[in-house]
Protein: Tyrosine--tRNA ligase
Organism: Pichia kluyveri
Amino acid sequence: MLRYRSIHSIKRTQNIVFASVFRRNITRISPSISDILTKHNIEITEDDLKHDFKEPLISHLRKRGLIETCVNEEQLRKDVETKSLGLYCGADPTAKSLHLGNLLPLMVLLHFNLRGHRIYPLIGGATGEVGDPSGRSTERSSMRDDIRKDHIERISQQFLNFFINAIKYGKTRNPEINNLQIGSQELKNNKEWWQNMGMLEFLAIYGKHIRVNQMLSRESIKNRLTSEQGIGFNEFTYQILQAYDFYYLNKTFNIDIQVGGNDQYGNIVAGVDLINRMRKVEESKFANEVYGLTVPLLTTSNGVKFGKSAGNAIFIDKELTSSYDVYQFMYNTTDEDIKKFMYKFSLLPTTIIDKIIDLHNTDKKVRLGQRILAIEMCDLIHGDGEGLSNYIISEILFSRNDIRGNFKADDVLDAFAKQNLVKDLSKEQLFSTNIVNILHEVSGGEKSKSEFKRMIKGGSIYIGNTKEGKITDSDYSIKADDLIEDKLLLLKAGKKFYVVKAI
Ligand SMILES: N[C@@H](Cc1ccc(O)cc1)C(=O)O
């Protein structure tokens, strides 16, 4: 039963009753998102919170659209519910930062981790030197050693931060996660085992178990063989390196599952094959089955690869892509893609996502779905509260909705403080002089007083973010009423906002 309606259809009195009933359940969720849900009368019940964890994990991941192919699915469905499994997913240090496209396999690791399984993100310190031909039509250009090292350090840190943050984020979206026994997380670098491997040793022990005809039949190789440029021996042998990684990790750390993008299918299967062949040779008896999982290649409804904006990747490193840009990117999601992306990247209960989407569909212009999706993505990557801050900033910049009454003064101050855009001024100072002096002061002398006077004449100075706040008199002095919650003053000069904290 849907216990919510569009805000437009609820009478004020009803609204208050609903809100107070709902708040009991919702307050256990972060205000970053619960305030919006409450405002739209979306109730979260205990059943909603428990629902996803009652589903068998593989079914749940399929429902969330996180699985494209699954090697040995039938057995995996059983093992995942009864055993503690280890999973790994690798990324080569080809760029300074992971990007949104890399997050999908990490979400699979995350869901397993929440249910107690061990996860091992792996940085390809060794494989990065060779270059994966998967999904590429041309050869990778080589990279300087010092640059690769720098990438390795950065991506290793991003891996660790991602999982720490994503789990924290998860707890703010579903308190049920606090009751779970979360699995361990350990970072690996395949340079660790490759740097001591001798070529002779490798060929003698493993070479004969790796079949060249199978290597030639992989999609990524076939395409390149027929290309004019051909394929270098390094890229041709890449799949062996990844196959051996899986074998080594399975034998040494009991890692049972490799997760990757759909273009990694060939490399993952190569690993499963090598493990099975070596087990026969080594006569290992009690070993578990091994598994491969690939996630779909994410494309948008416009047919472009997800995670790129004007051809550039959206990075998870804040210094390369600000969280505000992540928000804007996700806010531009088409209506058709919202559910798909929310299922994949949010840890909100799926029943709540369904309610959000139903409500979104009643009035798409409101862009409720885009807003929540953008908040979810920012909070997942950069921490709870980031999304709300960006939501507030973009509402102030682009919307005519009065922020007074819609946002708490502290949240607005917090949002702008993150961008270093809040200026503290004492109330005595604020109330004792005219608006031109205040503007001059808060702009840091960026514009002269006469320029501000001219702007007032031209009608482009406002208090607040609505038309009603237009200032027409250069001698106007700020009143207590102009402050929001007695502490926030928002000034708009042309396209620019100045945020003042009255102390
Ligand atoms: N080949 C993977 C990275 C990787 C490297 C080593 C592995 O063992 C696993 C995965 C990629 O390019 O995305």
